[in-house]
Each structure stands twice: as structure tokens, then as C-alpha cells.
Amino acid sequence: MRALLVVDVQYDFLPGGALPVPHGDLVIPVINKIMDRFPLVVATQDWHPKGHLSFASSHEGKDAFQSIHLNGQPQTLWPDHCVQGTEGAMISNELRQEPIQLIIRKGTDPKVDSYSAFFDNLKIRPTGLAGYLRERGVTEVWVAGLAGDYCAFYSAMDAAEAGFSVFFLEDGVRPISPEGFERAKEAMIQRWIKIVTSSQLDH
Questions:
Q1: Which of the residues are catalytic?
Q2: Which domain holds residue 194?
């Protein structure tokens, strides 16, 4: 059985949002078109408390997109985004909601960022998604959403590490950085993740 994992299609990552992914809105029609091809659709929602340590505003004298060390790991500092309960944190109303059977909220720990749908960035706290997918009989995970070089990428890598066959829908993602996206694709190919397009979904 295969599942579609729709990563962080939220207003703050769309044009006009606090942390817009270039052309991020273009993933929505692609995802909407393919949802019915999957017996299971899971979405993720970045859901940060105010003052999250991944926000540049939480570090005096630091600007957005600077890098620091947090919990012994490199951390990009982001503009405040996807703060719990704000409109920016909401999943876009343009994304079809009715096929979504589960929404995983991540990034809720104020001290640890969480790109992946499966784990926080320190790999300390699982979200429970891997177990849920296994219980539902899922063997293939198809990944779409935002951003292609961050949360969608890390979700795909962790899905592969969890033992699923992973398909990364290149036309269903958009990256923050084209260069970063090329590096991400190389890393995924090394993990046997298949880079595909929605047209390759079997009919």
C-alpha cells in the first residue's frame, strides 16, 4: 500500500507568507490532482510556539538566515513563522482537505527545530508517523510539499531510514534554494529514493 505525505503546505510558506518558498503555491494543484490516487493521505503542519529557538528574533543581534549552533548542531535562523494558532500556520484552504486522514504537527518543542515528519532534528522524539504508516500497511511513501530542500527532503530521508520505499515527487515540491535542492536530490538518490513526477503514478 502506498501513502501520500503532504508536507507543510501552510500560508507562511506560500507567497505573501512570513517565510515564502518561491512559487510554493504551484505545488497545490499538483497535489490536489493526485490525492485520490492514494488510499492514505497524511499531511504535516509546522506548529511552533512563540519564541522558538529557530527564530532569529529569539537571538539578540542575529538576522534571519544566519547560521548558529543550537544543541550542538548547525541551525539556520528563520523569520518567525507557523506560530501556533496564527493564520500563517494554517494549512492552505486551496489544498483539498477531505482526503487527509491524519495531520502531524511538528516543531512544537521550543528548543528543537523539526524539519522531518518523522523526528525532531535531534532524532530524540519521534512523531509516531512511522508506526502509524506500518499499522496501516504502508510500504511506499510518496512525498510532496514544502520546501523541497528542507522539510520535504528530510521527511523523505527519514522515511527511507524507517524502511519504506520512497518516491519524491519533483513536480509536487518547490525548494527555497535551487543549489540546495540539487544537493538534496543527490543525497536522496544515494539513499535509493526515487525522484519522480506525478505523471509517473501508475494508472
A1: 8, 106, 151
A2: 2-49+87-200
Residue 203 reports pLDDT greater than 90: no
Low-confidence winner among 43-52, 70-79, 85-94 (lowest mean pLDDT): 70-79
Q: How many domains does the chain have?
A: 1
Tell me the CA distances in angstroms from 66 to 7, 20, 52, 54, 63, one per residue in order: 24, 17, 15, 11, 6
Please write down the HEC assignment for all residues of the chain: CEEEEEECCEHHHCCCCCCCCCCHHHHHHHHHHHHHHCCEEEEEEECECCCCCCEHHHCCCCCCCCEEEECCEEEECECCCCECCCHHHCECCCCCCCCEEEEEEECCCCCCCCCCCCECCCCCCECCHHHHHHHCCCCEEEEEEECCCCHHHHHHHHHHHCCCEEEEEEEEEECCCHHHHHHHHHHHHHCCCEEECHHHCCC
- Per the structure block, which three cell numbers stand in for 181? 535542492
Q: What is the Cα–Cα distance from 21 to 92, expressed in whole angstroms?
A: 14
Beta bridge partners of 6: 43, 144
Flag whether 77 is in a domain.
no
